[in-house]
């Protein structure tokens, strides 16, 4: 199609009057339709005549890529593959060509565009929210912006963080005590075996070595009981610190992030309220008001969640630590007093079961 138009433009004769003025040619409907087709479908480079002499050069510079046919009194160059089609569809040489149908868009393409649009909206909202929150955070750090403060809640949160640091220190010391007790038990067990062996090989000191061997074995037994109590104490504190307190602090982090977003959109709303009022600003103000209200509701909800979790955490901490501190005191006192019976009663009181040496760890069904 395109080579036909170029061929028309290259071979068209413009008659000139004697006074040098160009005479207007009659309108050609076929040429107008061909130009419209080129604008819609674009040129086909495989069937375009190449002009080596540049624009306005002589006809000798044309390098035809197809065969020349007559079209409404003018010559046009078409490719060999379209020659038969032109003769068959346009036998009268009117220069009109059938329009090309466009490929319909499938439902898969529409779904893909919809997903891409949703992802773009998500990234856009995230970028705007991050910018506003970063601006608010920097304003607060440099003392230029205001922030919403709940003094009572902030005091409780700071107290929780301080308590968690102290409990982590106790947990670290408890683990160290467990390691030292285990090493002591290993040493006492080896010493008892050595005394028992020497009592068999030294008849003159058999009775003395025997007493000491029995003493070390008794100390090992009591030490295993104490080690079980200390392990239970450490495990309970570890659960309290790494699970219960950490869960509350995660909610606190969400609350602080919601507070920052709330202040950021509050500041944005205040700036828009102080600006000029026109049609465009009114729409932005309504949108900012709706966004601010949504972040305010989120902030209020998380503030209530934090207050409830702090209350339950304090109650749970008192209950757990009351039991664990009593266990630790009774077990350590009975061990160093040499009261084996009281030590065993302490473990029974707190439902602590000791595993015999070399026993495999019970399955999770047995632990339930």
From TrEMBL:
Pfam families documented for this protein: Arfaptin
SUPFAM superfamilies from the UniProt entry: BAR/IMD domain-like
Record GO terms (molecular function): phosphatidylinositol-4-phosphate binding; protein domain specific binding
GO annotation (BP), single: regulation of Arp2/3 complex-mediated actin nucleation
Claim: Cytoplasm is one of the keywords in the record: no
Major localization listed first in the record, in broad terms: Golgi
InterPro entries noted in UniProt: AH/BAR_dom_sf, AH_dom, Arfaptin_fam
Top-level taxon of the source organism: Eukaryota
Protein name from the UniProt record: AH domain-containing protein
Lineage of the species this protein comes from: Eukaryota, Metazoa, Chordata, Craniata, Vertebrata
């Amino acid at each position: 199609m395109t080579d036909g138009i170029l061929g028309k433009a290259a071979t068209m004769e413009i008659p000139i009057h004697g006074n040098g003025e160009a005479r207007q040619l009659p309108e050609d409907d076929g040429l107008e339709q061909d130009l419209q087709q080129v604008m819609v479908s674009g040129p086909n480079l495989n069937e375009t005549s190449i002009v080596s002499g540049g624009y306005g050069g002589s006809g000798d510079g044309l390098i035809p890529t197809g065969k020349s046919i007559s079209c409404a009194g003018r010559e046009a160059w078409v490719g060999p593959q379209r020659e038969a089609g032109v003769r068959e569809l346009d036998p009268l040489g009117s220069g009109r060509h059938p329009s090309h149908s466009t490929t319909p868009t499938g439902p898969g393409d529409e779904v893909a565009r919809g997903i891409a649009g949703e992802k773009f909206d998500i990234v856009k909202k995230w970028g705007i929210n991050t910018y506003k929150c970063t601006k608010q955070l920097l304003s607060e750090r440099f003392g230029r912006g205001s922030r919403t403060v709940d003094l009572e809640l902030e005091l409780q949160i700071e107290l929780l963080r301080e308590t968690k640091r102290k409990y982590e220190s106790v947990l670290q010391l408890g683990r160290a005590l467990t390691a030292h007790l285990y090493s002591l038990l290993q040493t006492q067990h080896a010493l008892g075996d050595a005394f028992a062996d020497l009592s068999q090989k030294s008849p003159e000191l058999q009775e003395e070595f025997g007493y000491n061997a029995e003493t070390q074995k008794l100390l090992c037994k009591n030490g295993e009981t104490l080690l079980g109590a200390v392990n239970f104490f450490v495990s309970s504190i570890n659960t309290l610190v790494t699970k219960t307190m950490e869960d509350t602090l995660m909610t606190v982090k969400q609350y602080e992030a919601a507070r920052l977003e709330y202040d950021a959109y509050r500041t944005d709303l205040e700036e828009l309220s102080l600006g000029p009022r026109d049609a465009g600003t009114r729409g932005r103000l309504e949108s900012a008001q709706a966004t601010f209200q949504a972040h305010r509701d989120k902030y209020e909800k998380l503030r209530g969640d934090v207050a409830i979790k702090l209350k339950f955490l304090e109650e749970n901490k008192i209950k757990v630590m009351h039991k664990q501190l009593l266990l630790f005191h009774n077990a350590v006192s009975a061990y160093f007093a040499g009261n084996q019976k009281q030590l065993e009663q302490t473990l029974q009181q707190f439902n602590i079961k000791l595993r015999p040496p070399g026993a495999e760890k019970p399955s999770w069904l047995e632990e339930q």
